[in-house]
Automatic annotation (TrEMBL):
Single biological process term from Gene Ontology: nucleotide-sugar metabolic process
NCBIfam families found in the cross-reference section: dTDP_gluc_dehyt
SUPFAM superfamilies: NAD(P)-binding Rossmann-fold domains (SSF51735)
Cofactor: NAD(+)
GO MF entries: dTDP-glucose 4,6-dehydratase activity
InterPro entries to which the protein is assigned, alphabetical: dTDP_Gluc_deHydtase (IPR005888), NAD(P)-bd_dom (IPR016040), NAD(P)-bd_dom_sf (IPR036291)
Organism: Maribacter ulvicola
Descriptive protein name: dTDP-glucose 4,6-dehydratase
Domain NAD(P)-binding: 8-320
Source superkingdom: Bacteria
């Protein structure tokens, strides 16, 4: 470590974090990154191959809930900034077993805040908390979430993220800590865990299996390409105003059935079936409990204040994503 500033990134072996770290290191050649990740089922160290040999990068296998470890890292590396990605992130898992969501998402965030509060001791180092638009609940056919929307979380996952957002907020209001929170819509792109919607559609299609779609397939999500998200996080970390929240969206609203159909249409061209279309494999399955109908984001604040806008066209992002999974699954 030859340069002078080190930030702590948590959950960097997950989907968004492992896209973010190479991006951040490239943009900040004079900043070191310590990546603290527990390598749960969701973390995959192979996603960080590109930075393995980067002298400014260090991996630490551990838990954000571990006060002694986090404190030791702050002291050893003189941590002067935090970006907190670490979380349990899969809504379905939060329905079947919510306990770990409370632990990692709430207690883990609290633990990071506490170490930062005690060790930074009034220094205005940045603490950036990564969160989700799901904290705002569900929209009807019309309207968008903004930074002013009410928190109305509906799943144990979104409730745990909402709680962590509130803790971060309180550390600004109470202790004057330099915090920013960003809440974004569904990300898609390379390195996402197999359990999530888009990888599941691609894998099922190619393996000639049923493509499972919840309920009637009409639930709407806004899709943000993960590399656009990474640019947005960098802008917020560097230039966002302390105490503020920024919403990021991709302006790509589609219902789940449309997403599946788009992927099938691309695969029909890339990997034509002997007979018929991959669409024939789509099957509706029992809906997720408490399934929010629609999420959509008005990202005009970050656009006006920080000049960020999603820039990757959905068709291009989806093509890159599909190529990455075809390669991963060796198909
Ligand atoms: P992910 O599940 O792919 O990755 C989470 C990472 O955190 C994994 O590497 C895991 O090993 C690690 N982790 C879990 N518990 C930990 C603990 N106790 N200590 C240390 N590390 C731990 O998640 P993701 O999709 O990359 O999401 C990252 C963040 O972005 C999360 O906070 C999530 O709530 C938020 N977010 C994600 C999306 C999305 O579409 N993926 C959208 C909005 C917000």
């Amino acid at each position: 470590h030859h340069s002078n500033e080190t930030i702590l990134i948590t959950g960097g072996a997950g989907f968004i974090g492992s896209n973010f770290i190479p991006h951040f290191l490239e943009k900040h050649p004079n900043t070191n990154v310590v990546n603290l990740d527990l390598l749960t089922y969701a973390g995959d160290i192979r996603n960080l191959k590109e930075v393995d040999n980067n002298p400014n990068y260090r991996f630490v296998n551990g838990d954000i809930c571990d006060y002694v470890l986090v404190k030791k890292l702050f002291e050893e590396f003189n941590i002067c900034g935090v970006i907190n990605f670490a979380a349990e992130s899969h809504v379905d898992n939060s329905i079947s077993s919510p306990g770990q969501f409370i632990k990692t998402n709430i207690q883990g965030t609290f633990n990071l805040l506490e170490v930062a509060r005690v060790l930074w001791n009034g220094k205005k180092n940045r603490f950036h908390h990564i969160s989700t638009d799901e904290v705002y609940g569900s929209l009807g056919e019309e309207g968008f979430f903004t930074e002013e929307s009410n928190y109305q979380p509906n799943s144990p996952y979104s409730a745990s993220k909402a709680s962590s957002d509130f803790l971060v907020r309180s550390y600004h209001h109470t202790y004057g800590m330099n915090v920013v929170t960003s809440n974004c819509s569904n990300n898609y792109g390379p390195k996402q865990h197999d359990e999530k919607l888009i990888p599941t559609i691609i894998r099922s299609a190619i393996k000639n299996a049923k493509i499972p779609i919840y309920g009637n397939g009409k639930n709407v999500r806004d899709w943000l390409f993960v590399k656009d998200h990474c640019e947005g996080i960098t802008a917020i970390f560097n230039k966002g105003e302390s105490g503020e929240t920024y919403l990021l969206g991709g302006n790509n609203e589609f219902d789940n059935l449309t997403i599946a159909s788009k992927i099938c249409a691309i695969l029909d061209i890339k990997r034509p079936k002997a007979k018929g279309s991959y669409k024939d494999q789509i099957e509706f399955v029992k809906d997720r409990l408490g399934h929010d109908f629609r999420y959509a984001i008005d990202a005009s604040k970050i656009s006006k204040e920080l000049g960020w806008e999603a820039s990757v066209a959905f068709e291009l992002g989806l093509d890159e994503t599909i190529e990455w999974y075809l390669n991963k699954y060796q198909l």
